[in-house]
Each structure stands twice: as C-alpha cells, then as structure tokens.
Amino acid sequence: MTNVNRILRWLFFLLLVRPVVLVLLGLNIRHRERLRIDGAAVIVANHNSHLDAFVLMSLFPMRVLPRLRPVGARDYFFRNRFIAWFSQAIVGIIAFDRDLRGVRTDPLAEIDAALQREEIVILFPEGTRGEPERLEKLRTGVAHIAERHPETPIITVYLHGLGKALPRGEGLLVPFIIDVFIANEFTWTGERASFMKHLEDSMNELVAEGRFDPWQ
Amino acid sequence: MQWESLSIQMRWAMAGIVGLLVLSTLIVWIIGKAFPQRNYTELQQRMKTWWTVAAVFLIALTLSRTVSIIFLAFVSFLALKEYFSLIPARRADRQVMFWAYLSIPVQYFWIEQEWYGMFIVFIPVYMFLLLPLRMVVIGNTDGFLRAAGVMHWGLMATVYSISHAAFLLVLRLKDDPEIFVGPGLMLTLVFLTQFNDIAQYLWGKTLGKRRIVPKVSPGKTWVGFIGGVATTIALAVVLAPWLTPMNRMHAVGAGVIIGLGGFIGDITISAIKRDLHVKDSSGLLPGHGGILDRIDSLTYTAPLYFHYVYWLFGWHTHGA
Predict the structure, then answer these.
(1) Phi and psi (nearest 5°) for A90?
(2) Can you say whether the dihedral through the CA atoms of B98, B103, B106, B112 is positive or negative?
(3) What's the fold here for domain A3-210?
(4) Residue ranges of the domains in chain B?
C-alpha cells in the first residue's frame, strides 16, 4: 500500500466512516471489553448491510486501523479497476473467491498471510447480506481458517439495526442506533463440526441476549 | 462570541453551575472514601456524564446564539433517533422516518429566523399532514394508523417540545428588544428542570414511602413529588427574578410549572419504556441511560414554561 493510499484511508475513516457510524447512527455496544485489540484475531459477524464492516471497524481505536482487514467477495468488490482500488486500498478488503471452481491457488492464502502479520480479519460467514435482520446458515470457510490458526482467537459479533438503517438494495441511509453484541473469544475446537456448532451457539446466544422483535 | 452579550447574572449563573458540579463531585468522592465497601460506580459514572453534558451545554451557550440552536437541534436528533430505534417499526416506515428527521433542521430554522408563527404550527400541523401523505404513497395499510400515531408522537416529544427551549433563546422583549433575555430564560428552564429531577429523587430516596404511580414508576413517592416541587418553587423564586424579566410572583408560577411538568414528563417516558420493555432508552450517557432518559422531564417543562413566559410579557417576534 502506498503512502498516499494510507493517508487517504486514514482520512476516509476519520472524516467519513466514523462520523457516520458513531454520530449519525450511534452504537450501543454490549461487552466492549471482550474485543481484542492486540494481536491477530478473527471477527465473525452477521451480515445485513454494506455498513456492517464499517461498524465493526469503528469498534476499534483509530491506531488499529492499519491492521483491520474485512474479507469480501472478489466478484463483487473487485469488479472493476476503480472499485478494486477503493476496496483494497481504502477499505482494506481481502478478496475471497466465492466460486472455487477453476481456482488452483490456495483461496485462503491472503487471509493466512494477514493473520501471520497480526492483523484482525473480519469475516461474514453468512456469505450474503440476505434478508434484513434475519440470520442465514453460516458457511464453513471460517472453520478452515481456524484450523490453520488454532491459537488465533475467534470473536463472534452480532449486529442489529443496520438492516433498518441501510438494507440491501436501498440507497437511502436512515439513522438508527446500532446494537452491537460481542461474545467471549474462543479458538479452534479440533474438529470442524464442533467448531461450527460452537460458532453458531455463540451467535445464537448473542441474538437471544438482544431479544429484538422481528422487523415487521 | 456571545459571551459579551450575556448578562453579568448569566455569567455568574454559569460559574455557579460549574461550582455545583465541583461540589457534588467532591461529595461523591468523599462518600466513596467513607464507604469503600459499597459500590458507587453508577453514581461516579453519572457524575462524570454530568460534567460532559454541562460542559457541552455551557460552551454552546457561550459561543453564539446559532451554536446554541444547533446544539438543541442535535439533542432533538439524538432523542428522535433513540425513539425510532426503540419503537416496533414497519419496514415501510423507513422513508417516513427519514422525512421526520428532515423536519429537525426546518423546525430549528424557523427559530433562527425568530418566526414564531411557523415554529408553533410546523410540526403539529404541517408534519402531521405530510407524514401520512408519505405513508399513503408507499401504500402499506397494515398497521397504518398505529405507525402514523407512534411516529408523530415521537416527533412531538423530541423535536417540537424540545425546540421550545431553543425559541426561548431568541425571545426579545417588545419594549426593550436590544437586551438579550433569551439565554437567561433558557438556562432557568433547563437548570430548574434538571434540579427538579434531582430534588424529587433525593426527597423520595431519603423520606419517601407511599408510592404515587406504582404501576408506571414504582420508585416515585408522594414525598419525593411534593418535596421536589416545593424545592423547585423555592429555587425558582430565588433564580428567576435574577436571571429573567420575571418577578417573584411570576417565579412561583414558573416553579409550579417546572415541578409538576417535570414529574409528568418523567413518568410519561417511563410509561413508554415500560411499554417497550426497556430500562434505558440507550447507553449514550453512562450512569443516566440514553438522552431520552435525561430530557424526559424537558419534553413537558419546555413547552409549558415557554407558553407561560410568552403569555406573561409582550414579545418582539416575527409573525406574532
């Protein structure tokens, strides 16, 4: 990343992302102390809106920004040169191939490298933003990452309200306070099925803590 | 800078507020030391938040009239956002809520213009007519009436009511339009309203027994209510003649209005929170809850006190 891009990224988050997320929307964070700031970590969150990654990145202090790496679909976030530059240089997205047919290289190589550099990787294992405020089945890609990095803490985060503020397919941002629930960290359980079960349980616990009525 | 135009009494009153904060911080510190086995975290948090709230409020009041108006518009925005985030809303209402938010700059613009006529009718008439129109265009009729009512209630409480505190700022006496009585009138309202909350709490906590509205707010007692109102009247008689054009007799009326109105505003917001099964309206102000929890009393005292003051004197406003 060039220095110009680094400065642009810093300004983009300081002057646009943070004012929108923290002032226009506003966060109501439960268990902030469970968030890990030092060292590598994998943040696993539910996906409702384009703003999800920005909200998760705003949970961390600005000095951590260079280490924050959301993972996004290559076919979407890298679909042309400008969007690819913005996704990579400004947002800091790691590209991930949703369709692995014909891909011969290791699809998780970039994520591996990021975790080795002590970066914080943000994942949305629902795969798609889906219906607003409804949880989809979690994909198992996260289990592969945890298996390769058995020491790295996995932290589940449940976001509520973004599906109201900026749902899929809507261009109009309407201010709502975003509820953020953070789970206790855990690590690779030694086996894929139990890991996915642990992940889903921790997410469901956070959802239960929220006790939100479904979006009518 | 507005500081030059603030009366000498205003400057002393603002210094007095800082003094009160220093004093109460000391008291909290001393009881923390005296009873180390007890947990005073919430009290300490509340004190810290009071400092922030008072600092922002006093700085806004000092900078300029426009900054003070923008500050209150921002308070309305935060309160409306809390309200919209709490209510069970329909997906179709997003766009309507967006329009409701847009009414905030418009309402506070009338105030900046000192346009009394538009200020007083814009939300209760024009927004009342406009929001259902927006809903009809979207066309979802399931739960239409409930949604229209719930959204307009929020707009009235958080924007219309609170904006009365801002209109106090721009009031100028007809006979003497060069003197800025607005900041004194507004500071008296806000200070007495917050003081009344604390007085009712302290009276109730120390001597209160019989509950006054057990179904809505089990912590409220008759002693807290009566003791609070009496203390607020006493303080109003001392402060209002000094900070505002009101005399002693007027000040008694202002004290009664703020004491009673503050209590009713408090329990009304409590009833809404109970209805929605939440304890605090948000976590914005540590130790207090959300901004709605802090300004609940003001949703009643601001319009009532404004009308009282407006009726007492002849005012120099556009469209009056």
Answers:
(1) -90, -50
(2) negative
(3) Glycerol-3-phosphate (1)-acyltransferase (3.40.1130)
(4) 1-63, 70-170, 181-320
Residues 6+ apart with CB under 8 A from B53: B285, B294
Q: One-letter amino acid identity for B239?
A: L
For residue A184, give the nearest of A72, A44, A62 by alpha carbon: A44
At A153, the amino acid letter reads P
Q: Which helix (H) or strand (E) holds A72?
A: strand A68-73
Q: What is the mean pLDDT of residues A106-128?
A: 89
Q: Does A31 touch chain B (CB under 8 A)?
A: no
What residue has token string 């920005």? A54
Contacting residues of B for A181, CB less than 8 Å apart: none
With CB atoms and an 8 Å threshold, state whether B282 touches A26. Answer: yes
Per the CB < 8 A criterion, the answer to whether A73 and A99 are in contact is: no
- A47-65: average pLDDT: 94
Query: CA of A175 to nearest chain B CA: how many angstroms apart?
Result: 6
Nearest to A175 among B88, B101, B283 (CB): B101
Q: Alpha carbon of B285 to those of A162, B50, B181: distances in Å? A: 22, 9, 30
Buried b (16+ CB within 10 A) or exposed e, B80-105: bbbbbbbbebbebbbbbbebbbebbe
Contact A176 B82 (CB under 8 A): no
* CA–CA dist B248, B307 (Å, integer): 18
Quote the CA–CA distance of B186 and B7 in Å, as a whole number.
13
Mean pLDDT of chain A: 89
pLDDT tens-digit series, residues B264-285 = 999 999 999 999 888 888 888 8
